[in-house]
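User: I'm writing a tutorial on reading structure tokens. Could you give me a worked example: one chain, its sequence, then its tokens, then a sentence or two explaining what the tokens reveal?
Assistant: Sure. Here is the example chain.
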Amino acid sequence: MPPQSTEDESTEWAANLKTLINTVAEPNPKARKVNTRAQSNTSANLADKPVTTEFLTEALSKQLESLKSWFVPIISPIIDKVDEHDLAINDVRLRLQSLEDKIDNLKSVPKVCDKELDLLKSQVAEQQKLVKDLKTQTKDAPSGVVFRKIREQYQRDEDKRRSHNIVIHGIEVTEEEASEGCERKAENLFQIQLGIKDPIPMNAAFRLGTSEKAPILVKLKDIRDKGRIFAHCSKLKDVTPRISIQEDLSEDTRHERRRQLDDYKRLKLEGRNPIFRGPRIFVDGKPWMQR
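And here are its predicted structure tokens:
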């Protein structure tokens, strides 16, 4: 059996515990100098009480309050500094993410340029073949006839090259456009304003100029999507600011359409449902001849 503690040993243990509690009642040396009288009173009060559970609870509670009064003023400024650094770090992260998005957009530019270059090369080859064929066909024709045939053929080829394109007027430049690009604006127009649920694939979308109201040229992958877009254009009548969508036509075709605009309006009033195909007016599927 273990040896039993004597009464003297118990008394000595209790005295040592009281001495320890009185010694650590105030952990802050500076506060100890200021609160000498309060410390003496606390020590005296604790020394007079027997060592019980209530006594230990009271002593530890006083010690905890003393630790708080000393520790909180020191740690609070540190916590505030940490919060400030967290905010600064989050701001840096957002800036880095924005830069990464812009870099990703710039990476796609060479691909678009390569596509445009390949397209231009094929167009040059077509034009060279066209000139060669026209020279053969008009070898003995007057120069005026040759020039007219070349101009008409060029106009047809130019309109064919632009047949997959549309031009959007009325969408102003915003800060987000630098990172999101014009394709996102075109997508929003098709889905939100026009109500076209299915996505419309695009080869490219960019501004035709540098002004805030420069139109956006959209190159569609499928020419059938062009008809879907124009079928919903009536929904843009109530949109503010005013937005309009037009075909991408050559300069000669635009000139011919403007020249025949009065005839087009007159035929419309007569209920004959005229439509433009290229530079000419068609009525009932047949070319309309100006009288």
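What the tokens reveal: Residues 81 and 87 are 10 Å apart (CA to CA). Residues 53-137 form the longest helix (85 residues).
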